[in-house]
Amino acid sequence: MAPSSFQNNRVTSHDRIPSHVAANMSRKLRQLGILSQIVPGAGRRPAIYGFEPLIAILREKTGD
User: Virtual CA dihedral for 54, 31, 21, 60, nearest 10 degrees?
Assistant: First the structure.
């Protein structure tokens, strides 16, 4: 998995965020273009999300 990617189940297991809340946040952030789905989920395998769009926004704002 790339350093700028994650799965919702990793967020929920470490931060005590309910899975339905993490899924809702991911969906909304994807709609806003802040997250991108790198690999879609299938069956019990969770989707892998990347936050490169967010990093690009930060780079643009800071001039890096």
Answer: 10
Residue 15 burial class via C-beta count within 10 angstroms: exposed 0-12, middle 13-18, buried 19 and up: exposed
User: Does position 49 have pLDDT exceeding 70, yes or no?
Assistant: yes
Q: pLDDT tens across 17-47, in order?
A: 787 887 888 889 889 888 888 888 888 888 8
Q: What crossing angle do the helices spanning 19-31 and 8-15 adopt, rounded to 10°? A: 130
* pTM of the predicted model as reported, rounded to 2 decimal places: 0.62
The dihedral formed by the CA atoms of 40, 41, 47 and 53, expressed in degrees to the nearest 10:
20
**Kind plus residue range of the DSSP H or E element containing 5:** strand 5-7
